[in-house]
Amino acid sequence: MAARKFLTVPNVITVVRLSLLPVYLWLLFGKDELVAAGWLLAVLGVTDYFDGFIARRFNQVSEFGKIIDPVADRILVATAVISTMAVHAVPVWFGLATLVREIVVSLAVVLIASLGGARIDVLWIGKCGAFGLMVSYPMFLGATDDGWLGNFFFYGAWTSGLIGLVLSWMALVSYVPPALEAFKRGRKGRAEHHE
């Protein structure tokens, strides 16, 4: 039963997504194929939404999945942002604004959990912000193409990127009240458990 819970379709998708990151980096830095790397990055981003949907829809949520999926998401985001900045496909300020927000959220989640805080549900505005950013980074790479498609990706990248960035930072502020409430609930639950 444990093996079956481990070998779920969402977990396989997540592991495959992680294993394709070296291919993405090879296309980017080894082959200098920025557009191809952008297409692969887009596929990796889309699969992130698929594995979560499959896990919930077909009751394939597992303890391993709860750990590996957010870890894979953070690795994917960090790799996408840093590598895209490294090839000068996105301005440094934009990449840093994305990274700083991710770091703050990650540290806050770890801190709340370590202090006994309850789990916080993902806000709709945060999902929209993350989606906008994950659409923009592959497009920034696609915008390096010299043809008309490059121009399309350029405007698409900035439109989705700026909207995603604003929504992501708005979500960060919006998480403060539920984070404080989750911390209080978690601490209260632990205190009652010890009584």
Structure description:
With 195 residues, this protein is mainly alpha-helical. It has two domains: 1-87, no CATH class; 88-195, no CATH class. It is built from nine helices and no strands. Helix 3 packs antiparallel against helix 4 (34-57) and helix 4 runs antiparallel to helix 5 (63-86). The radius of gyration is 18 Å and the shape is globular. The two termini are 35 Å apart.
Number of strands: 0
Radius of gyration: 18 Å
What is the chain-wise order of helices and strands? HHHHHHHHH
Number of helices: 9
Strand percentage lies at under 5%
Counting structural domains, the number is 2
Q: Can you give the helix content as a percent range?
A: over 70%
Average pLDDT, to the nearest integer?
85
How far apart lie the N and C ends? 35 Å
Sum up the overall morphology in one term: globular
Taking the sheet with the most strands, its summary is: none
Unreliable sequence segments: none
Structural class: mainly alpha
Quick summary:
With 195 residues, the chain is mostly helical. It contains nine helices and no strands.
Secondary structure blueprint with pairings:
Elements: H1 2-6, H2 9-19, H3 21-30, H4 34-57, H5 63-86, H6 92-114, H7 124-142, H8 148-174, H9 176-194
Helix pairs in contact: 2-4, 2-5, 3-4, 4-5, 4-7, 5-6, 5-7, 6-8, 7-8
